[in-house]
Amino acid sequence: MNEQFLDLLAQKYDTEEKVVTEIINLEAISNLPKGTEHFVSDLHGEFQAFQHVLRNGSGTVKEKIKALFRDVWTDHEVNDFTALVYYPEEKIQLVKGDLCNKQDLNRWYRQTIEQMLKLISFASSKYTRSKLRIALPDQFVYIVEELLYKTDSTNNKDPYYEEIYRQIISLGQSDKLIIGLAYTTQRLVVDHLHVVGDIYDRGPDPDKIMDTLINYHSVDIQWGNHDVLWIGAYAGSLVCLANIIRICARYDNLNIIEDVYGINLRPLLNLAEKYYTDNPAFRPKLQSERHGSEQEILQITKIHQAIAMIQFKLEMPIIKRRPYFNMSERLLLNYIHYDKAEIKIGGKTYPLENTCFATVNPLQPEKLLEEEQEVMEKLLFSVQHSEKLARHMNFFMKKGSMYLKYNGNLLYHGCIPLDEEGNMKEMQIEDKTYSGRKLLDVFEYYIRYAFTHPEETDDLATDMVWYIWTGECSSLFGKCEMTTFERYFIQNKETYKERKNPYYHLRENEEICRNILLEFDLNPDHGHIINGHTPVKEIRGENPVKANGKMIVIDGGFSKAYQSTTGIAGYTLLYNSFGMQLVAHQKFISKEDVLCNGTDVLSLKRLVDKELERKLVRETNVGERLLQKISNLKKLLQYRYMN
Ligand SMILES: O=P(O)(O)OC[C@H]1O[C@](O)(COP(=O)(O)O)[C@@H](O)[C@@H]1O
Ligand SMILES: [Mn+2]
């Protein structure tokens, strides 16, 4: 081992005792059971449902409460306490409303704090004291530790402990402490969170999800196609930008663009008012609780058309300058017979309905009007100068990737593009071809390049980000084409079909999944693939666990727009020291419902894989690093102190 390295290490561990203590500490930690990993995906802006799943640890919190108090509590009491752990601020207010008498309230405080401490002690039993300390509310660490670690079996200190409780209550600290302890519990039940893509689009609050993740204690993200679309917009891709605005208009979410990220839509609205009128194909999908005026809806309908047409135009030069994208069939504005209002697709002619081609010059359909150009430039400027968006997109870069190898498993959002025979599908980019892992790596390279060069708007990297949203070899899209245009303008639904990559039927096959794991240097006997992106249609009997347990599809199904086709509100996955469990969630109604009626989203657990022996920290990614550190410290001990 390099002596210089050991000298550096010796600066931190400058006595034999320090080295020895650290070795003992790390050895002990690596023999603890592995922490619980929590997998979620396809959140699609549904912050309320997401935060509920996060707060209840996909059912883990309730499970712990039941295990502790089942024998002494009724279901009602369990539900009440569980709601307190999930939403402490709100629940305390409700309790205060019920208990008007001060004595009763103080008794409730005394009891509740003690119960919370029991729960924490139970939930932290597989962690070190120092890990628990980090999770405790800062201002109360000292007294909480006193109460947690009472070791006095002689009862000599009983009055001392009682006094601590009394003082907390009389000094008016109970609310704060209970709230702090509730969050500690939430934090303890999940050690690490994986978000397997698609935080953005369709639902109303992706920004709140991002803020929650930024503050979360331990998280990684596998980018989804929708996330990459937002990254692309921020990185300077005008066509990605047009897409995110179009989707926000379609789902009546323009306030995300305007109010949340502070992007001025006025220029786009002016353009929309000038060229477009009402159009049934472009009315927004309304959120049920929304109370928009007719006039507002009309405005959105116009913006929706304006930005969709800009998008269709902007796609064309990219398709032309990148022949290897193999997308010439998507040069749709070229295939329109404008006088007859018809289009020829795949050799067939279809009539066009609800057209809005006022800004299209049939001789040069891809050409943006000067006004359109200006609008896009202003929008891009605004997007790239939104501080909040910058914060969220930077977080994507810091914690996100195309795929992740973690504790022997492979995580990605969409697919590994395959051909019909199950071979890795090849894509040509300039004069090279890529497939499998190399293809995903090169996609990630381009995304990162585009992100760090936001001023370049039509270079290969920027075009590539859009390709990853919609191209046939994209591992995030996984389909041959995106038929957005057809769904707006053609009645015949046969044109809406988006052919899926063969991956989606081949992934049922164990051999295929084993090959994919091997492609990523993972052990196919132990590893699993964790996949998001496609809603599992439980209604039709689809099983989220495929390929003899090698493939687990956990599209969280949080997206309300898709719940009628899935039949449930989706899946999440837990992986603790005992094994993997899939959790099926019922539709989340509201936080209020949980608080007042004690109803919780029913979570049915299904065992996916059971560890033969309890899995320890030393067998995990983190453990690997610990073992490396131990080995370095042992060398230091030899080199410095044993000679
Ligand atoms: O239902 P919408 O909002 O029109 O979106 C449909 C589009 O979304 C996609 O399904 C991609 O989104 P997902 O990643 O959520 O599947 C496209 O394939 C399709 O064209
Ligand atoms: Mn997706």
TrEMBL record:
Catalyses which reaction(s): beta-D-fructose 1,6-bisphosphate + H2O = beta-D-fructose 6-phosphate + phosphate
GO MF term (any one): fructose 1,6-bisphosphate 1-phosphatase activity
Enzyme class: hydrolase
Keywords on record: Carbohydrate metabolism, Hydrolase, Manganese
One Pfam assignment: FBPase_2
Pathway: Carbohydrate biosynthesis; gluconeogenesis
EC number of the protein: 3.1.3.11
InterPro entries found in the cross-reference section: FBPtase_class3, Metallo-depent_PP-like
Cofactor(s) the record lists: Mn(2+)
Family to which this protein belongs: Belongs to the FBPase class 3 family.
Protein name: Fructose-1,6-bisphosphatase class 3
Organism annotation: Paenibacillus qinlingensis
